[in-house]
Amino acid sequence: MNAADLFEQNLSPVKPHHKLKKAARSYWKSLTPPYEPKDLTVIFSTLFILLSIPLTVLVALNSRDDRSKAATPVNKNTSYAMPVLVLKYFPTQDGVNLDSNITGINVTLSNIRSHVDQITSETKDALQAGSIYHGYKDPTATPALNYSIIDQKEYLTALPIGIEVPWKPGQGVYRPDYGKILTDLNICNYVNNQGLREVWLYGWHYGNIEPAESVMSGPHGDTSNSGGGALNMPVCSKSYVLYNYNYGRGTNEAVHDHGHQIEIMLEHVDNNMMQNNYIGPWTTYYSNDGSGSSFHRCGWTHEPPNTMKTPAMVSDLYDYYDTRYAWTDCEDWRPDGSGQKTYINCNTWLCNETKYHTWRWQNMPGKNNTVPGASNWWDFIGDWDSALNSGEQLLYDVIPPSVPTGLTASDIYSNKLTLTWSLSTGAVVDYYVVKRNGVEIARVNTTTLTDFSVLPNTNYSYTVSASDSIDNTSADSSPLSTATNNLTAPALSRPELDYTSSKIGNALASYSWSHTTGLGTDRMLIVALSIRKAGSVSAQGVTYDGLPLTLVGSSDQGAARTEFWKFSAPSSGRKQIVVTLTGIPGGSVASAVGWYGVDQANISYQGAIGFSANPAVTIPSSTTAIVQDVLSTPNLFSDAVSAGLGQTQIWNLYSGGDTKGAGSYKSGSVSTTMLWNTKWEAWSLSAISLKLKANGIPGDLNSDGKVNIFDASILFFNWDSTTTPAYDLSHNGRVDIFDASMLFFNWTG
Fold first, then answer.
1. Are the C-beta atoms of 726 and 717 separated by less than 8 Å?
2. Angle value at C-alpha 280, between 70 and 242, nearest 5 degrees
3. pLDDT per residue as tens digits for the range 463-512
4. What's the predicted TM-score (pTM) here?
5. For 35-44, how does the pLDDT look when each residue is reduced to its tens digit (9 = 90+)?
6. Is the CB of residue 334 less than 8 Å from the CB of residue 372?
7. CA–CA separation, 80 vs 197, rounded Å?
8. Contact 214/263 with Cβ under 8 angstroms?
9. Pair 168, 315 in one domain
10. Which residue among 70, 131, 300, 374 is least enclosed by CB atoms within 10 Å?
């Protein structure tokens, strides 16, 4: 025996429930049926002793410290590789000189090449330096963005002509054909396989060519300074930005383009934070020096923070060289304006436009910034898709929601009770944490929870706390002491609603959200999808907590598609649902609905499609069933839709791509019709019927109508399992002493 073995044998801790599991399994293996009647007393007595370990011990072993906290919003230490593809268009007629008839620039190819190389080098350096938080005063700080040129291509031809500039109709002024340029390059190979983030396209602004400063393409669409218009750039697996530089100018203008793109992307995330807090309200800039309470903030791409004229005064635009002084908090920016103020003029950035942009960016909350609650804003520039998909924000509230109040218990029986409480105020609540006897039992996004894992005639103490989206958590509420009784809850007449959630997927190929599953028995999770088709798009798969759902049925009109997916016996708690589509839809809406008391083997589906008003679908059902539906319609004019008579609407949401997704439910009958009130338009409507599972005896694990030694054998064989929800009678996520207690309480022999 080696040292490691000796340690394992003598020193490693053994949890009591592991000992119980081992002893129980050994005991059952020693028993060989058939049993003599005299043996049963011994067997049952022994079982009772084994199962009578004090519950308080196990509660103590499984408890955890869940103190209130103000969580760090995101990791601020992330940096990003920024691979760049450089494209250069140098039209020439003689192979020596740039064609001035096309470009308006009279220069040799040799000179324009050197000029472009200089712009590329200086722009790369300026962007990288700008991503160093407080780099002008912190020599140890490192950049958030690390630019590299991975490929360069030169063309001695003119730029291909694309669409007409939207605000110059009939004037013969066009954008370059970015779609053709990038398609011919197989740009998605660069993006998908080489991690390309940006394309720097060099051309001219002359004649019939008017370039866009920047254009974006990707799963999240075009968030850019393009000025609108269908620019037809290929959509790849990740977002990328094309910058169209005019080599008739220089580095200042190239860096300037990036300034606008950065502002537009960050304004897309939080317009108020950028416009009113970082840039600052322009009323404080007008003809004053920012003294007193009217200090200036950080300015924007066109105007530094020491400007004192309105944007309408064109002479003051691009005011990078102004020696007038003004008070600003930019170098110690805080969203609430509590930072230190400094009295600055253009000498702060050496009265140089490129250096102004670099200085200003270095004051944005960046890598390892010290701004309370701020993320690393360069996350959005370095990986736009990941930042959006994760729900990252520019600034997080570090103040938790208020402590929940009004905690009460109702519908108290031997096997369940319902808790309700008042909404927390202050920060937006993402979920509530419910504790029983100091141990967390559920996370829910509503102000109610039905606890199905209680025992008869037992005293309990409950508390509730509130958390926001980044886990800023309030203190626990005042405890509620209550006790169950020996009255059995009335049997269900049909499946009961658990929790619902929904998500607007817009034009995304994949999206996710959090959903809560309660503690009821015979649980069923239903995910409903409304998809506006772009080509041919459907769901490739849906997962709950990483596990796949099963497609129940789908209905496809062509312009509108609906789908139902199911997951039997989902684990309780707050889990992630992920929807993955086969492509980019015109828009999509998803909803998750949890039910309990559902017969898992008896779910029926019916779909219908049409182009008309008042879509309807009829499905065979029963009086002990619930019928749920999902509607999808292009809804081109955002027309209101409403559920039919007797239906309870669950969700009704409008997505990108003119997509309306809605759903409802109602009690079933022999034949049940689901109807929606709409205008004349295309539609797809799907319905499912969920039947009630007949009430069995809790603890009857082999469904023979008895709770006896065979059920105990099943339970002990699955002891400590977290993957066998059918044997988790208490619905706490584990087969343990609570389940054994419930089994023996319902013992029939």
1. no
2. 90
3. 999 988 777 889 999 999 999 999 888 888 899 999 999 999 887 889 99
4. 0.53
5. 444 444 444 4
6. yes
7. 10
8. no
9. no
10. 70
| DSSP state at residue 389 | H
Whether residues 604 and 704 share a domain: the answer is no
SS3 letters across 431-461: EEEEEECCEEEEEECCCEEEECCCCCCCEEE
Q: What is the pLDDT of residue 463?
A: 97
Q: Which amino acid, residue 523?
A: R
Least confident range from 157-161, 379-383, 497-501: namely 497-501
**Average pLDDT for the chain:** 85
Residues 140 and 284 in one domain: no
* Those residues with Cβ within 8 angstroms of residue 165's Cβ, 6 or more apart along the chain or in another chain: 171, 173, 174, 175, 210, 227, 229
Residues 6+ apart with CB under 8 A from 263: 274, 279, 300, 301
User: What does the pLDDT read at residue 65?
Assistant: 34
* Domain match, 283 and 258 both: no
Contacts for 34 with CB less than 8 Å, ≥ 6 apart: none
pLDDT at 20 (0 to 100) = 41
Of 125-134, 380-389, 490-499, 591-600, the one with minimum mean pLDDT is 490-499
Residue 647 falls within a domain, yes or no? yes
Which of 649, 650, 741, 639 is closest to 681 using CA atoms? 639
Question: Is there a single domain that holds both residue 513 and residue 650?
Answer: yes
Nearest to 730 by CA among 452, 348, 328: 452
Range of the structural domain that residue 702 is part of? 3-50+697-745
CB 316 within 8 A of CB 309: yes
Q: Can you spell out the DSSP letters for 31-57?
A: --SSPPHHHHHHHHHHHHHHTTS-HHH
- Say if residues 534 and 586 touch (Cβ distance below 8 Å): yes
183-226 pLDDT, tens digit each = 999 999 999 999 999 999 999 999 999 999 999 999 998 999 88
At what angle are helices 109-130 and 353-362 packed, to 10 degrees?
Answer: 30
pLDDT band for position 608 (50/70/90)? very high
Is 722 in the same domain as 674?
no
CA dist 453 and 441 (Å) reads 9
In degrees, to the nearest 5, what angle opens at C-alpha 157 toward C-alphas 151 and 196? 20
At residue 625, the pLDDT reads 94
Beta-carbon count within 10 A of 626 CB: 23
pLDDT at 30 over 60: no
- Kindly state the greatest CA–CA separation across the chain: 111
In a domain, 103, yes or no: yes
Long-range CB contacts (< 8 A, 24+ apart) of 300-306? 300/259, 300/263, 301/256, 301/259, 301/260, 301/263, 301/357, 304/346, 304/349, 304/356, 304/360, 305/280, 305/330, 305/344, 306/344, 306/345, 306/346
Q: Are residues 85 and 29 in the same domain?
A: no
Q: How many domains does the chain have?
A: 5
Do 189 and 305 lie in one domain? The reply is: no
Domain endpoint, select from 252, 269, 286: 269
pLDDT at residue 146 above 60? yes
Is 371 part of any domain?
no
Choosing from 667, 692, 717, the residue where a domain stops is 692
Distance CA 457, CA 486 (A): 6
* DSSP state at residue 294: G
Q: Is the pLDDT reported for residue 4 higher than 70?
A: no
Structural domain includes residue 384 = no
439 beta partners: 436
